[in-house]
Amino acid sequence: MNTPQTSTSPATQAARKPRGPLGLKLEQSSSSGRRQAAAVLEVLAGVRSPTEAAQALALSLPAYYKLEIRALQGMIDGCQPRSRGRQPSPEVELRKAQRECRRLQQELQRYQALARSAQRTVGLAAPAAPARPDARGRKKRRPAVRALKAAEMLRSVPESAGPPLAAPAGSPVEAAQAG
């Protein structure tokens, strides 16, 4: 009788990842993780009691029960149906968001250029550029000349209101007027 022979080339055998018995990926797990999993399975199978398993793992009984709950939750999570198709990775999502950001920045620059062009066509003056902050990120302080101008306006009161006030001798206002 002919038995079907599977043709596995040495290349396909080398490409497969080695697995332990039952198809488990044992090289990815630590020895303590394997010991804990074996103890939980033995308790669930009825081979050991939870107290014996806790003693074998050098855990308290409440710590063993927490381990058992984690193991069962992992088994439940592993049995959930997987979604089909390629799953988006965070790196792919980041690249997609960066592309969208660049596209929106280019679109913004285009609209700003169109607005400037329309303003020039209509004859509107270009809006004043916003004050640029200094190296420390603060707005530049306006000089105190405003105070001098205000003092000058107060001194130049119309004649009907009374004589103008004279600036005190040696004041900055007098120095500004002289210079």
Derived structural class: mainly alpha
**Order of SSEs, N→C?**
HHHHHHH
Total DSSP helices: 7
User: Which regions contain 5 or more consecutive residues with pLDDT less than 50?
Assistant: none
Radius of gyration: 41 Å
Mean pLDDT: 78
Shape: elongated
Which strand-content bin applies to the residues? under 5%
Please provide the count of β strands.
0
Helix content: 40-55%
Distance between the termini: 120 Å
The largest sheet is:
none
Verbal overview:
There is one protein chain. This protein is mainly alpha-helical. Among the domains are: 29-79; 90-124. Helices cover 55% and strands 0% of the residues. It is built from seven helices and no strands. It has helices at 10-15, 31-45, 50-56, 61-79, 90-122, 145-155, 172-178. Helix 2 packs antiparallel against helix 3 (50-56) and helix 3 (50-56) packs across helix 4. The longest helix is centred in the middle third of the chain and has 33 residues, at 90-122. The model has no long low-confidence stretch (mean pLDDT 78).
Write the layout of secondary structure elements.
Elements lengths: L9 H6 L15 H15 L4 H7 L4 H19 L10 H33 L22 H11 L16 H7 L1
Helix pairs in contact: 2-3, 3-4
Question: What brief labels describe this structure?
Answer:
mainly alpha, single chain, 55% helix, 7 helices, elongated
